[in-house]
Write a structure and sequence with these properties.
Distance between the termini: 18 Å
Number of helices: 7
Radius of gyration: 16 Å
Order of helices and strands: EHEHHHHHH
Strand order of the largest sheet: 1-2
Strand content: under 5%
Number of domains: 1
């Protein structure tokens, strides 16, 4: 299961998921079966600036993108890409319109370097395939 955490990973995300109202995991769903996009999938896009550029081209305002080597610590409102993609023709970032294109273009190595939970996803999937 791959989920947006909508918050920074403080080590209690799985416990918080278990405590949510009406969430009853199947027996097979344990902590090693849940992976997180911290804080949301847009953080992965920030880790791969080339992928962003391939979708938004010259209208991407690189200086408006939140910075930092660890994209998982950028606050949720700041990661949503609206300011960096607004104006200059075309629509600003919209999850329903742009997320699929950006996910398809993600460079796994770039995301792996900037998002430790992405590396955990790779590890979990690799273990399941072995």
């Amino acid at each position: 299961m791959l989920l947006d955490s909508d918050q920074i990973d403080d080590g209690t995300l799985f416990l918080q998921l278990q405590q949510k109202a009406n969430w009853k995991p199947a027996r097979a769903v344990g902590e090693n079966s849940v992976c997180w996009m911290v804080q949301c999938m847009e953080a992965w896009f920030l880790a791969d600036r080339n992928g962003l550029h391939s979708v938004f081209g010259e209208r991407l305002k690189v200086r408006s993108l939140p910075g930092g080597a660890d994209v998982e610590t950028i606050t949720h409102p700041d990661v949503l890409l609206k300011n960096a993609t607004r104006g200059s023709g075309g629509s600003p970032y919209h999850k329903g319109i742009h997320a699929g294109k950006l996910l398809a273009r993600l460079d796994p190595e770039s995301v792996r370097k900037g998002a430790r939970n992405f590396q955990r996803l790779i590890n979990v999937v690799s273990e399941k395939l072995d």
